[in-house]
Design goal:
247 residues, alpha/beta, 8-stranded mixed sheet, 10 strands
């Protein structure tokens, strides 16, 4: 059951879930034909990641899960360095499609993704599952269509509810815009078509769910109050003249 207006203080709060999009990547700032398979952050993306530190200080997460793409790892790295906390790479948080080289779906070629050694060298505060090895985390698999990504989002939502909701933790997920839209839709019980209303997600925006019994409450959506207006990227700025918050 989805609850938007309910007062969480009247129920036992099981888990606070914060879903964060990565900072602006080099691909976000490039024409489609110049994009690469695993870009890092732009200069403004790095600034956004630094500002995210202050937002997460207020959250005080007990667990952090991050997609193994470079842009998500670079987004959480400043917080991990300054807080001394560790994160866990969760492959299922990756962007829809996977690690692809090419301009369009017919031309896509699967790439390895970062290897275990590369991630451990550059991001030592990120704990890696056994599946990430010397062959990379994507392992040159083919393109993942949106239908399969929606199934993956449903699995992630179910895993978070079943494995972590009873733990009373404050969990942060660092993921990607399109997959976030699918994941929000999965938590809200929408069909595969419903995700389209959530596709306009800003870089390093924060979306918050409170999981209670028996409700899933969306308490904050696409929030960018930790950024100055000139650092907001990935969306039409007119949407953010007034902060978007569902309480």
């Amino acid at each position: 059951m989805l609850s938007i207006a309910a007062n969480p203080l009247r129920k036992e709060i099981l888990m606070e879930l914060y879903i964060v999009r990565h900072g602006e990547s080099e691909n976000n700032a490039r024409p489609v034909e110049e994009r690469v398979e695993d870009p890092g952050l732009t200069e403004i993306g790095q600034r956004q990641a630094e500002r995210l530190v202050y937002r997460l200080w207020h959250v005080q997460p007990t667990r952090i899960f991050v997609s193994p793409f470079r842009r998500t790892l670079e987004t959480i790295a400043p917080y991990l360095e300054q807080s001394g906390q560790q994160a866990e790479a969760w492959i299922d948080l990756h962007e829809q499609g996977g690690v692809m080289r090419g301009v369009d779906v017919p031309d896509f070629e699967g790439c390895p993704g970062m290897t275990r050694e590369e991630i451990r060298h550059e991001f030592p505060a990120v704990h890696l599952p056994a599946e990430i090895d010397h062959t990379g985390w994507w392992k040159c698999r083919p393109y993942e269509p949106p239908t399969l990504a929606m199934e993956r989002a449903s699995r992630v939502a179910a895993a978070l509810r079943e494995e972590y909701a009873p733990s009373h933790e404050r969990i942060v997920l660092v993921s990607h815009g399109f997959f976030m839209a699918l994941l929000v839709s999965a938590f809200m019980g929408l069909t595969s078509e419903g995700f389209e209303r959530f596709t306009d997600i800003a870089n390093v925006s924060v979306t918050k769910f409170i999981l209670t019994i028996p409700h899933t409450q969306l308490s904050l959506y696409n929030c960018v109050r930790h950024l100055p207006e000139e650092w907001i990227t990935g969306v039409d700025l007119r949407h953010f003249r007034t902060e978007i918050s569902v309480k």
